[in-house]
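Posting this for the archive.
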Amino acid sequence: MPFKIMSLTDAAVERITEIIEDSDTPVIGLRVGIKNSGCAGVAYTMDYVSEAVAGDDHVEDKGVNVWVDPKATMYLLGTVMDFEAGKLGSTFTFKNPNQTGACGCGESITLKPADLKALVEARAEA
């Protein structure tokens, strides 16, 4: 099985599929990245993808396409993307093993680059 930078829960797949189907313009997936933000350091970014961007890392999970900005790859390795819906709103969430902190308001997080040795060892055990 090929290594995936990140994986998607069934809820994330369902929501991304809805986004693609409901779009007024041709959308083939989402692009995930990070940007400098807030007091903790960075925030996740998400954009529609109508055409694959050369150089982006491609993740196909359960039939859904996600592209990862190459500047974010080392920070997203091993991440599980989920979608949570509640009474007060809904959002994509990221269970990221590279997250080392977050600000109190939830606007931003602190990430470290992935530990490649640990990832290789975990994959070998799986």
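The helical segments are 10-22, 73-76, 116-125. The first strand starts at residue 6 and ends at 8.
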